[in-house]
């Protein structure tokens, strides 16, 4: 199998990368009709599998789980997830032949073997669904020509797919039909219905392509969503400890700070997040984030270049072949960091204090969101897709950190995202060494406003506000958020 994207002529590469159409809510007026009464069989019951299945069942669809024989026999977590939630569970042989829609929600590195195992069992004219296009785009999986291949990719961790649905909202979702596999022309209607079943249509749906989803998803997860949240959290915590801030306070400020700060981002973009700061603090956070953008831009560009060329997937697949050696080493190291091992203290931190005492984290988040967005758009990814993949998803990942720190984030995200996150983190920390050497507790750990009279130069403030508000991520975000009328505020720590 060859990298599908790399086999395409340039014209077709650009064509597929540019597929991005915001779908009007009227396009979902048929609800789940196209899948009503059909048998949906989900392969795998992990982060996405369980949570998508719960939403789909609550939306009135017929869901069961096909698991590996050994998972059933040894009652593994996947079996427990499914049976404790009263789903029907069976082997591939028992469930796949009668499935109208087979949903592949196993880890990306297993996709080739899973698809090769289920494909011969699938009935003529059935549909195969993915939530990430890696197998099709980066590995060039060839699917039987009578099978329809679609993608419904929630831009969010599985846990939040469920949590947002339970709040009466949903998560932005990319849907696509693989151009090589739509023999009956039914792919789009089925993808739309599935998306309604997961609640995605309430938050915003882009009609995308497998290619556009993969090249944007990998970039978001490696940089702002996971990589930079990991790097920024660890560096912020370590700096506070180095400077004598009480460890329990430092731990809590970072663990819950990412959630509180990014909640403002989700509701009103970078503007709302920066507006939570006093004028004097906003100017300082702006200066820090500009400096961070200059330092980190080449790294963001390298990640995007390697994703586009296939170099990233080639090297990650080498690690798969090597028993996940790098992934497992990095995973173990994250479990041992001082941040991970220091419990959040029993101290009260007021909502505003998370902003005033953590300017550095605000700066990391502005820099990371804008850089990820800018780099994706420069590479040909459409702004709407880049917005979902940078700004909107950051708070949803932050929710996982608030639950149980970075270990939880890395547990909940896909193995593919986890690998990219560590790759970024290991390259980014050395780049930021000089910058961090100049950082003190006025911007992380203590209230930046303390001892200042709040005076600012009006012209400086006006120009900072203009730069923030006129960024393309703000303009696109303001439009996309108009469709998010059902968005609910999250009660933060
Ligand atoms: N994690 C996330 O939040 C997101 C994931 N995605 C995509 O969703 C898909 C699923 O990812 P995710 O939910 O993280 O996966 P998980 O790692 O959570 O899923 C593991 C599930 O797959 C099963 N599984 C593992 N290995 C195999 C195998 N060789 N054969 C059959 N089943 C296997 C496991 O069952 P058992 O080992 O017990 O047999 C378990 O049920 C991926 O394509 C990912 O990119 C998209 C958006 C976000
Ligand atoms: C951010 C990582 C992700 O792409 C996701 C949760 O959307 C993943 O692969 O887990
Ligand atoms: Mg994603
Ligand atoms: Mg991903």
From TrEMBL:
Keyword vocabulary terms for this entry: Amino-acid biosynthesis, Branched-chain amino acid biosynthesis, Isomerase, Magnesium, Metal-binding, NADP, Oxidoreductase
Catalytic activity: (2R,3R)-2,3-dihydroxy-3-methylpentanoate + NADP(+) = (S)-2-ethyl-2-hydroxy-3-oxobutanoate + NADPH + H(+); (2R)-2,3-dihydroxy-3-methylbutanoate + NADP(+) = (2S)-2-acetolactate + NADPH + H(+)
Domain KARI N-terminal Rossmann: 17-208
Active site: 132
Cellular component terms per the entry's GO annotation: cytosol
EC number: 1.1.1.86
Cofactor: Mg(2+)
Annotated Mg(2+) 2 binding sites: 217, 389, 393
UniProt keyword annotation of Isomerase present: yes
Limits of the KARI C-terminal knotted domain: 209-353, 354-487
Cited Pfam families: KARI_C (PF01450), KARI_N (PF07991)
Class of this enzyme: oxidoreductase
Residues bound to substrate: 278, 414
Pathway(s) per entry: Amino-acid biosynthesis; L-valine biosynthesis; L-valine from pyruvate: step 2/4; Amino-acid biosynthesis; L-isoleucine biosynthesis; L-isoleucine from 2-oxobutanoate: step 2/4
Cofactor note: Binds 2 magnesium ions per subunit.
Stated family: Belongs to the ketol-acid reductoisomerase family.
General function of this protein: Involved in the biosynthesis of branched-chain amino acids (BCAA). Catalyzes an alkyl-migration followed by a ketol-acid reduction of (S)-2-acetolactate (S2AL) to yield (R)-2,3-dihydroxy-isovalerate. In the isomerase reaction, S2AL is rearranged via a Mg-dependent methyl migration to produce 3-hydroxy-3-methyl-2-ketobutyrate (HMKB). In the reductase reaction, this 2-ketoacid undergoes a metal-dependent reduction by NADPH to yield (R)-2,3-dihydroxy-isovalerate.
Protein name: Ketol-acid reductoisomerase (NADP(+))
Source species taxonomy: Bacteria, Pseudomonadati, Bacteroidota, Sphingobacteriia, Sphingobacteriales
Gene this protein is translated from: ilvC
